[in-house]
Amino acid sequence: MSWQAYPSWLNSGDNAWQMTAATLVGLMSVPGLAVLYGGVMQKRWSVNSMMLTFVAFCLTLIAWCLWAFKMGFGNPIAHSGSGVFGTHGFLGTMWGEGGSVLGHVGEQGQALIPSITEGPPFHFPTATLVYFQFVFAAITPILALGSVLGRVNFKAWIPYVVVWITFVYTINAFLIWGGGYWAAHGALDYSGGYVIHLAAGVSGFVFAAVIGPRLQRDREVDAPNNLLMVMAGAGLLWLGWNGFNGGDSYYAGANASAAVINTNLCTAVAVMVWIAWDYIFRDKPSLIGSVNGMITGLVAITPAAGFVNGYGAIIIGVVASTLVWMAIRFLSRAPMFRNVDDTLGVVYTHGVAGLVGGLLVGFLAEPSIVEYIGIGGASNIPGKAGVIHGNWTLLRWQAEAAGWVIAYTGVATFIILKVIGIFVPLRLSDEELEIGDHAIHGNEVYPSDIPTLGGAHAPHAWQPSAAPAGA
Question: Could you read off the pLDDT of 142-160 as tens digits, one per residue?
Answer without folding.
Answer: 999 999 999 999 999 999 9
